[in-house]
Here is the input.
Amino acid sequence: MTIDNKISLEDAPLNAFHKKLAVYSSGAPFLDGYILSIIGVVLVQLSQALQLSVFEEGMVAAASLIGMFFGGFVGGLFTDKLGRKTLYVLVLVALAVFSLGQFWVTSAAALIALRFALGVAIGADHPLATSLLAEFLPRKQRGSILASLVMMWFVGAAVAYVAGEFILRAMGPEAWRWALASAVVPAVLFLIMRAGTPESARWLLSKGRTAEADQVIKRVYGSKFSIADLPEPVSERRVSVGALFHSHYGKRIFFVSLFWTCSIIPQFAIYAFAPKILSAMGLTGDLAAWGAVAITIIFVFGCMLGVKLINPLGRRRMLMHSFLWSGLALLLLGLFPEGAGLLTLALFGSYALFIGGAQVLQYVYPNELFPTEVRGSAVGLATSLSRIGAAIGTYLVPMSLSSIGIANTMIAAFGISMVGLLVTWLMAPETRSLDLAKASAAA
Here is the structure.
């Protein structure tokens, strides 16, 4: 596609700026995985040190998830009103300060407050980082690069487990303080990398700041390019945040939030409680311990497979296949809960592999289906609503295992996957070949 005999910015080749911006933006999912996981590593030690009650332990673990629920939508609103650039840096300052503050806590209340604040900052970082990245990426690489960010959650979680265990073994009785505060290191590193990142040219244009948008385009793509090379929005009508709650964009929010929730409930449950679930299915000892590790690794391979298939299959087909085959794996686990150990692990591994398609689309669809004026708000709202699914998946699994048993728990998870498949079949658009303006158009 060309504009005035020149390449449209949607079809421009991927350059060094795009690659660096992708790395900088990966800080959102990396810190999400790190900060949410490090608390699990040190919970026993800090609980003894602060003499936490069972209720306080639960609140310490849940505080960041609750904060993310509020931070996602609020952060999205601010990034749409104030721009991507400023908050892109400030949110990491907040993460560094709140992480370091955990070192000096002396009460459950103080720790809960700081974990909540960290959740707010993480939640705010998701919409602004992914929106900024989506608004610069060429159409051919937009899906695969946005999708690849999801893997950084697992990388962050893995680094947290390794760093946390090392700190607990090396730092003595107060090691939990050092472990919690250790998140300041990646936060500061990403802060340094993000410094100097330009504002989104699309956001500047949406605010009528044409000259500044033109300067950004020339800086990123070269002096021969200008705003004339950026595809025009399909509609000149301004879109307000209120549109996310009704009409066509309301339907898109419903679709994005529901598919995200249906993909995250079983995934969070299996990821968080793999040893407990495997034990309920008769796997014990090394088979259960190493099986849980293997399932976690396969989750990463599933995301990698999703990144590879997102363009050949397209968004809609990949999402339908992801829900179908991962759901069938859960159904077989429910129908044969006392199967051979290796068969059980193979079915869990199949689920982890096939759900990767739905996982990686969690960053792609929200950024493609909404226009620049409300993109941050839409991604933030979807992030907030998905945390409800994360909380359900994390906290209802023990109750489900004790009340209805492992077989019915797996069948219930299959049902959730089928809801995701149905809503995808009825509502998912295909945006693979569309530029960002056309993909986000209401019609």
Q: What stands out?
A: Residues 1-5 have pLDDT under 50 and may be disordered. Strands lie at 2-3, 6-7. Residues 369 and 440 are 4 Å apart (CA to CA).
